[in-house]
# Entry
Amino acid sequence: MSGDSAILVTGGAGYIGSHAVLALLDAGRRVVVLDNLVTGFRWAVPEAATFIEGDIADGPLVASIIAEHDIGAIIHFAGSVVVPESVSDPLKYYHNNTAKSRALIESAVKGGEDTSSSRPPLPPTEYPTLFPSPRMRPSGRSTLTARARR
Ligand SMILES: NC(=O)c1ccc[n+]([C@@H]2O[C@H](COP(=O)([O-])OP(=O)(O)OC[C@H]3O[C@@H](n4cnc5c(N)ncnc54)[C@H](O)[C@@H]3O)[C@@H](O)[C@H]2O)c1
# Structure
């Protein structure tokens, strides 16, 4: 990632993401926030960051953001995090945290190639091998499944 490229923060209107945005701006980075505001707040995103309302699984939108804002890195905070709800409605959590994160990762690997960008696709990376604890509840399991480790 070059020092001039911007950082895309998903879930940047949420609790953790909005603080990450502040820290990145303090560090002098250009920041773009992608958030569908399902639990986040528009007011939580500082004026100095570019805010885009939308879903992480919207491939054409993510591709256009990557290309148009010269995104060099993505920090992914978007997700569903309410533990009791994840137990009562686990499919919602696997959809938003796992399936949609996979879609975001696919868009990141393509690197904006769906648009007129000349940026080449990113090289293939090793896929994660994860072993969630059997005692872990769906809120944790669905987010952990989406996290990549080399
Ligand atoms: N809150 C904590 O103490 C804590 C601790 C450790 C890790 N985390 C992790 O940090 C991340 C964010 O947690 P949080 O507490 O800030 O939650 P939050 O609900 O405050 O923030 C999540 C943000 O993601 C957005 N969002 C949700 N689904 C989206 C989608 N499909 N597309 C676009 N935007 C979407 C929401 O609108 C919201 O702004 C989660 O992965 C969570 O597991 C949180």
Notes: The beta strands are 6-10, 31-35, 50-53, 71-76.
